[in-house]
Amino acid sequence: MKQVHIAKHAPDAHLVKGLLESNGIAAVVRGEFLTSGWGELPVDVCSVWIADEAQYERAQAVLLSFLNGDLARELRSQNWRCARCGEQLAGQFTSCWKCGSARP
User: Fold this and answer.
1) With pLDDT > 90 as the criterion, what percentage of the chain qualifies?
2) 38 near 45, Cβ under 8 Å?
3) Which residue has the higher pLDDT, 1 or 91?
4) Which residues, in sequence order, are CB contacts of 14 under 8 Å at separation 6+?
5) Cα Rg of the chain (Å, integer)
6) Beta strand pairing status for 27-30 and 88-89?
7) Is pLDDT at 42 greater than 70 in this prediction?
8) Using the 8-state DSSP alphabet, how is residue 33 labeled?
């Protein structure tokens, strides 16, 4: 196990965990239930860890790309139309806001 991200709070940690998992990197959140004691605990109490240390460099690259906004810029111009209901959607959406169908 290797730590890849120190979170400010549990939702931040779970966002990063989901990002890594969507890129095929198994991750876990540690310390999320300890954050109510911030004043008495070290600042890295809520963090994201990966199971396979061999994927550390890849995890860092994915996280850095996300934090720099690279993925958002890439997807911004990739609008798509829902195959189920025909709704036009912006590129950053992975499912249709109208009917819930997944992006093809």
Assistant:
1) 54
2) yes
3) 1
4) 29, 32
5) 17
6) unpaired
7) no
8) G
Is 2 strand, coil or helix? strand
Angstrom distance (rounded) from CA 59 to CA 23: 9
- Please give the single-letter amino acid code of residue 10: A
Q: Tokens representing 100? A: 């819930």
SS3 19: helix
- Amino acid letter, 65: S
| Strand intervals (E) in 2-101 | 2-6, 27-30, 47-50, 80-81, 88-89
Residue with tokens 């996280």: 63
Q: Could you tell me if 83 and 59 are in contact, meaning their C-beta atoms sit under 8 angstroms apart?
A: no
| Residue range 36-55: mean pLDDT, rounded | 74
